[in-house]
């Protein structure tokens, strides 16, 4: 029992909690116990102090940095970008025949930690898909932990029967983590059924030893010529989300959205780059 609880118990005993018997008709009312009034006042003061402490520890919710609430605790951000490209793309690591670009679903998660395991969850899921020279980016993110199941259900609805998943290290990290969260939340999904192209492995085969490492940021800069401005490193994403939940700041969570958006756009651009290397190697004019 805490010290505060013990003190409350003693004060209740001193104040007397039993209701006195009603006086007989015509009898004088008993005089109040002298110690009762001060004890009750102290008890009320302690209750007020405990309530004030509880209110101070409860964070004041911040407005979501972007998007629209689509379910309690879940926000959706949608953006569209011009992306002129061929309808078919050569991805021989998946199929010898050209593949419909519209089938590609580039995805990336931002999570509460890099260790994985049951205690790690995704608080943001971003996807990019191409249609008629437009790249549509959709991002789901949690504004409260209670929204996880609804976020996963929305993401599961984006997975079509003919979708091809595209990621960077997603086979080892993002997909297993999402499968675990789907299972814990009892959400039906088709992740295991879909083909999955993880660009990390082809990129390593092509660029291992050429650059210092094969991190996505390195490949963006050295191979695709993408330079991010005011980018928040992925390792700082968990702290940014927790700061938002604690009512401290939403600024860095907005930067996490920018970071995640660029990740999924890069996955599509990386696909075009790797397809171009394949054409050079095979001499295909496409």
Give a description of the structure.
The protein is α+β, with helices and mostly antiparallel strands. It has a single domain, classed as 2-Layer Sandwich (Nucleotidyltransferase, domain 5), CATH 3.30.420.10. The protein has 8 helices and 9 strands. The chain has helices at 3-15, 36-57, 148-157, 170-185, 200-207, 216-224, 237-245, 251-282; strands spanning 68-71, 74-82, 88-89, 99-100, 104-111, 122-131, 134-142, 164-167, 196-198. A 7-stranded mixed sheet has the order 1-2-7-6-5-8-9, with helices on both faces. The chain has a two-stranded antiparallel ribbon with strand order 3-4. Strand 6 (122-131) and strand 7 form a beta hairpin. The radius of gyration is 29 Å and the shape is elongated. It starts with a helix and ends with a helix. The mean pLDDT is 87.
What labels describe this entry?
alpha+beta; 9 strands; Nucleotidyltransferase, domain 5; 286 residues; single chain; 7-stranded mixed β-sheet; two-stranded antiparallel ribbon; elongated
| Total strand segments | 9
Main sheet properties: 7 strands, mixed
Provide the CATH top-level class.
Answer: Alpha Beta
Number of domains: 1
Stretches with pLDDT under 50, minimum 5 residues: none
Tell me the structural class.
alpha+beta
For the terminal residues, how far apart are their CA atoms?
A: 75 Å
What's the mean pLDDT score? 87
CATH architecture: 2-Layer Sandwich
Q: Could you tell me the CATH topology label.
A: Nucleotidyltransferase, domain 5
Q: Indicate the radius of gyration in whole angstroms.
A: 29 Å
Give the CATH superfamily: Ribonuclease H-like superfamily/Ribonuclease H
Beta-strand content estimate:
15-25%
Share of residues in helices = 40-55%
Please tell me what the overall shape is: elongated
Strand order of the largest sheet: 1-2-7-6-5-8-9
Number of helical runs? 8
Helix-strand string? HHEEEEEEEHEHEHHHH
